[in-house]
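Job type: complex structure
Entries:
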Amino acid sequence: MNNSEISEQGKLTIVGTGPGTDQLLAPAAKQALLEADSVIGYKTYVDLIRHILPESCDIQAYGMRQEVERSRAAAALALEGKKVCIVSGGDAGVFSIAGPVLEVISEEDLEKLNLSIIPGITSALSSAALLGAPLIHDFAVISLSDLLTPTELIEKRLSLAAEGDFVVVLYNPASKKRTELIKKCAQIMIEAGRKDTPVGIVRHGFRADQNVTVTTVSEMLNHDIDMNTTVVIGNSRTYRKGRFMVTPRGYAL
Amino acid sequence: MNNSEISEQGKLTIVGTGPGTDQLLAPAAKQALLEADSVIGYKTYVDLIRHILPESCDIQAYGMRQEVERSRAAAALALEGKKVCIVSGGDAGVFSIAGPVLEVISEEDLEKLNLSIIPGITSALSSAALLGAPLIHDFAVISLSDLLTPTELIEKRLSLAAEGDFVVVLYNPASKKRTELIKKCAQIMIEAGRKDTPVGIVRHGFRADQNVTVTTVSEMLNHDIDMNTTVVIGNSRTYRKGRFMVTPRGYAL
């Protein structure tokens, strides 16, 4: 490839920006953002990184539920030769924008694009770090959003996770309109004998207005749970120690 | 708290160092390492960060399977007033050292310690970023190490994860001595009708000797799978696109 071809080639980078503090933004992610001609993303996540973007950067902040539009816009700009970052909070590969981006790009365009994905710290991990050590044994990560997934499949997965005594991490646990599945989840866990199991609820982990609560399955619905919350339900052996929840691995102590 | 008390207080920080490249080490993790009097960890992970540690740092590199000893040593030093980092590759909270550390510290000592946990990019995320977008729907993370977990429980969880059509991420998939469970896993997935399901195998992701393969369940055992490998098995809808695997979320395209 000669220099003129390099200078004309666009680049699409899918960037996970982590929990929302510069202290947990990977250097690779920061570098990609600093070099971008355009940064595209959901407004909330774009706002969390806006202060590090250069003045020359074309910033495109979208509303909710425009994942497909955002993905097409990012791919089109990169195919025109721009350096484009499409961003997501946490890790773009966990229930997030890396999916629709790869879905909308044709295989032919994919070969033309210089596509790379930079992983980020997803909220299962940031929440677990604030809660102690809940993810030391097998765990299932389940989204309670039924916008694109049948309710029956979500309930089935919750039941199987309970049967397998997995630690369970819930993404999108509830919204103003969606309040039933989190109740159903609590019911499934109680029926599986886990009413006293520790549950961690983390809102805006590692941001200024962070809120961390450790409660139990039977009490969890008495706490605020919304779209900005991650819920971590321990397995049958998870216990509390001080302000933390701990899932033992089985070491002889 | 007055200054003399501050100067005497130790600090224990549990640090996830990510995949093993400075480009994916969080600034918060780097800062904690730079300020540490002592850094303790499994040799492989200590070696990956040794170049950024100051000369004055007391470095304690341990062999395998000494998690409890490492944890006790770190806690003891911090209680003596040292600034201590105990490190793990990836995220210390996923099947790793955050567990034994919290298990061995008494509740009384825990209150004395200035304990914090810095999350890192675990191999499920770094592997997924290299594989495309496999984790866009519900997934289960399962360790195939039966050193501390009954084989029957691991097999049960694999079967339930297959029944629930979870994407499955395998940690510690095989070692020189442990080769049976990965075979059993392939068999469980084939019996669940997933022989053609894409499988990603990532070794040393984001390091110089990185190796990324996309294959299928029926072919996966023909590839090298060892303790340095992470295996990502798609769900029934996961497909290949170019060099990537994609799990669709269900958007109307």
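Summary: The two ends of chain B are 59 Å apart (CA to CA). Chain B has two domains: 3-121, 124-246.
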